[in-house]
Amino acid sequence: MNQKLKFVLQRFALMLISLFAVITILFLLFRLMPGNPASQLVSPRFSEAERQALLAQHGLTEPLHVQYVVYLQNVAQGNLGISFQHGSPVVPFLLNKTLNTLSITVPALLLAFTFGPFIGANFAWNRNESIDAYGTGAVLIAFAAPIFWTGMLSIMVFSFWLGWLPAAGMHSATYTETSLVDRFFSVGFLRHAILPIAIFALWRLSQPTLIMRNNMIDLIGSDFIKLKRAEGLDERTIMYRHGARNALLPLVHYMALAFGFAFGGSIILETVFSWPGVGQAMWNAVRASDYPVAQGAFTIISVAIILLNFLVDVLSVYIDPRVADSGVET
């Protein structure tokens, strides 16, 4: 069998095993954790008959293994249950929140992964000079600073002191949504989105910058860079066309993880800026013991990370065929 095809099939099988394991762990985790989910669902004023009827409606009176089988069937059909808080299906609710989260995380990550490799390549090419020393220090400080602290600092400066940008929310309090385009492309949305995008991009900028810097440092002393210098090419051509291009592959892997983990990082960001995204929905669901929503949010995040990893593995094998050989051997 073709090595590339064998590699892709291996990764596809691993993806299915990972999805099954994650879904199973999430199912058990939310049912074994402290707290009674029925407390959110059933009012203390209900009679015992009403209480049992409501629990039976949500399948909570069945044995755990029966709940598990029903849960797997529902997940396979794209059904993640009914929210205890809102009484609405979880999937449309979370997909709507996911769009809000993506509206700030995707632009932030695109900014970070556009400028990060460029900055990292320049730091490596000027290693041990002032631009490298001070620049790397600044990037490390931006990464080490807690995102809630930089977020609150930006709100204090740009919203309260200067009054340039809104402090919280996705739109003004009087906003009425007329269409999806209006929700994400209005001037009001853009003014509300600038601070969360800027803070998230600043936080994520460090990793592509440092990964690119380290990869470039390893490449600078390699034989093929010396060969390009011997051919008489100028330094800028060697750095961008030959050095940076060869150092980009590890970043492709990291980019997939970054997009997946962006959902996890969005919990704090959305809480600071009161952004109505999936992170804030997940936090509210955990606090209210609304485990269909919390479980659904964790499931969507996990599935996104696993799928993106699989896609990057497939992409990597076509960018660098040597990946297939090493992956199949292992």
Overall description:
The protein is mostly helical. It has helices spanning 3-32, 38-41, 48-57, 64-76, 90-125, 130-144, 147-161, 180-185, 187-220, 223-230, 235-247, 249-272, 278-287, 291-319, 322-329. Helix 5 (90-125) packs antiparallel against helix 11. The longest helix is centred in the N-terminal third of the chain and has 36 residues, at 90-125. It is globular.
Defining traits:
15 helices, 330 residues, 77% helix, globular
Helix percent reads over 70%
Q: How many strands? A: 0
Main beta-sheet annotation: none
What is the general shape?
A: globular
User: Radius of gyration, rounded?
Assistant: 24 Å
Distance between the termini: 16 Å
What structural category characterises the helix and strand content?
mainly alpha
The number of helical elements comes to 15
Identify low-pLDDT runs: none
Order of secondary-structure elements: HHHHHHHHHHHHHHH
The overall pLDDT, averaged over residues, is: 82
Beta-strand residue percentage: under 5%
Structural topology:
Layout: H1 3-32, H2 38-41, H3 48-57, H4 64-76, H5 90-125, H6 130-144, H7 147-161, H8 180-185, H9 187-220, H10 223-230, H11 235-247, H12 249-272, H13 278-287, H14 291-319, H15 322-329
